[in-house]
Amino acid sequence: MLNILVCVSGGGTNLQAIIDAINEGKIRNTKIKCVISNNEGAFALERAKNAGIDAACVSPKSYETREAFNKAFLDKVNEINPDLIVLAGFLVVIPPAMIEQYRGKIINIHPSLIPSFCGTGYYGLKVHEKALERGVKVTGATVHFVDEGTDTGPIILQKAVNVEKGDTPKQLQQRVMEQAEWIILPQAIDMIANNEL
Ligand code: GAR
């Protein structure tokens, strides 16, 4: 059984996709041990509660320095001791010590086809704004391992999504979630849990 920790910052639709996929047997041999948010108002925490999953908030706002937050975050993660850490819309830079300790055991979902529209400053809706500004006809999502860089780790899965004429950033974001993110993130977890990578 793969025990996973899911880290979230916002609405938690990717978390919901993972919960649903486990319940439907699309992710096999996997248990969500805990959900951590950096933001106590995140609706993702409600989703965890509704599904009966342990949830915790570790917020940088509660600590005087970034170092103190990083230590508290890593201490909490070590207490949970997950086999895999899933960043599902987690908008906090992962502390270097955590990357070192959990190398090859942290994955992230990014809402573009990496290496397009990724790196520092590319997160959430901004990614789709930039894709529309550039006028690309195809975008998508990527699941990748996390290393020291921003969105630079080895790619696990990608899925392309068409941009439609007249798309707003929000419409494109929703389509990328529905047609790519909510599919490939559960798929990647299932592959890792069942040694199919
Ligand atoms: C998702 O689109 C995810 O790909 C993105 O944040 C959103 C979170 O939505 N992540 C990033 O931009 C990371 N760089 P959710 O809370 O509804 O899952």
Précis, in short:
By secondary structure, the chain is an alpha/beta fold.
Question: What keyword list fits this structure?
Answer:
197 residues, alpha/beta, Rossmann fold, 7-stranded mixed β-sheet, 6 helices, 7 strands, binds glycinamide ribonucleotide
Kindly describe this structure.
The chain has 197 residues and is an alpha/beta fold. The chain has one domain (2-193): Formyl transferase, N-terminal domain (Rossmann fold, 3-Layer(aba) Sandwich). It is built from 6 helices and 7 strands. The chain has helices at 13-23, 43-50, 66-80, 96-101, 125-134, 169-193, and strands at residues 2-8, 30-37, 55-57, 84-87, 106-110, 138-145, 155-162. The chain has a 7-stranded mixed sheet, covered by helices on one side. Helix 2 links the parallel strand 2 (30-37) and strand 3 (55-57). It is globular, with a radius of gyration of 16 Å. The model has no long low-confidence stretch (mean pLDDT 98). The chain binds glycinamide ribonucleotide. Glycinamide ribonucleotide is lined by residues 8, 10-14, 44, 88-89, 109-111, 123-124, 127, 177, 181.
